[in-house]
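AMP-binding protein structure dump, as promised
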Amino acid sequence: MLPCWRAGRGAAAGAVPHDARGVRGAGGADAGRGGGGGDGQSLTFEQLNTAANQLARHLVELGAGPERIVAFALPPTPDIMAVLLAIQKAGAAYLPLDPAWPQERIAGMLADASPVALVTTTTPTTTTPVFPSVPCVFLDAPDTRQLLANTPTANLTDADRPSPSSPSTPPTSSTPPAPPAAPKRW
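structure tokens r here:
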């Protein structure tokens, strides 16, 4: 898709990459597979697009949009693809965090970036601390699943976002990684 995007084929002038992915995702359940994780799970493009649209709408309600950051800390599952796409559809930049990092490192990065939300799970492998100043979206929590299930599935438009999405909006946070931990003294 990227070579076609760069060449200007399949993308309207001024369009942003997630718009093209939404069109690609509209091909139906048999159009191919979306993300796949090491646990054998997979999503069709239609399922990926639907999940991303629902989460993007929720993130917009939490304040996500252009010039805003949404952090995520997730184990390797198809959810990562849906979350990345949702953040882009909301028009926000994303800050990826590894759930295996020390809590102090994650806390420092969240404090520096001031994201509007942290998308994570409640699974025991995720050690991401909860911060009162950062709203957490726990993807595997029953109330979150219910909320997203009742959220419209249509692609977002500029009218749905706090401000229009632009090709010049950065997709990732410019927050530098935290410095390495101090060496241990024996």
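DSSP finds six helices and six strands in the chain.
lmk if u need the other ones
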